[in-house]
Amino acid sequence: MTLSPTNHRRRSPLYRQHQAMNAEFFQQGDALLVDHYGASLGTEAGQAKSLGVVDLSCVARLGFKGPEASGWIQEQGLVIPELPNQAVETADGTWVARLSANEFMLLDNPANPELTLSALRRRHAHAMNGEPRPQAYLLERGDSHACLAVTGEQAPDMFAKLCAIDLRGPHFANGSVAQTSVASSNAIVIRADRGNTPVFMLLFDISLAEYQWSCVLDAMQEFGGAPIGLTALQALSSDT
After folding, report:
1. What is the pLDDT of residue 166?
2. pTM of the model
């Protein structure tokens, strides 16, 4: 059965572009994500190691901000980075990025959808043991930000065409965060490697999704990059 984004409540702002590329979708909760494009499933794993881009706009993201944000997140059993512009991966694959002393961005593991973040949302909505809600304010970053994962050894060279920050390994190690300009637009870049392959999470205002997607695809052409689905991204985790 062919799945169509038009029949689902949650869909990426890029779904029309994916359909034009003969994307095959799969359902994850109430959303559809790209599994692979056309008949290219067998080649996308190799593409991911060289240079690929995955649309993760329908994968859950949350922000927490406020003077008690760091303490509250830690009380929920999550590790947080010590300093701003750093990110850490939790045991279940959730990434916690520290954007400032009191602001955090949490990105769900696409293979473990919304288990961690949905639990955090529930705990935040209901005060525990009658205590007042902490000064850790929840921000629905899935509504405000789109997310692309740019993968592969050639990704730093590709980003050099779009971003002034040097994203090569010695200068931008795994777990680094940059709040910068990408394709002349404000963006957050988080290095979140999978296995031995560099992966860069690119987050930006969701209203710019089509623009950023086209800019990344254009910059990739020189390096033989191409869109890939979530299956190829997840396969990188076993590439050790």
Report:
1. 93
2. 0.92
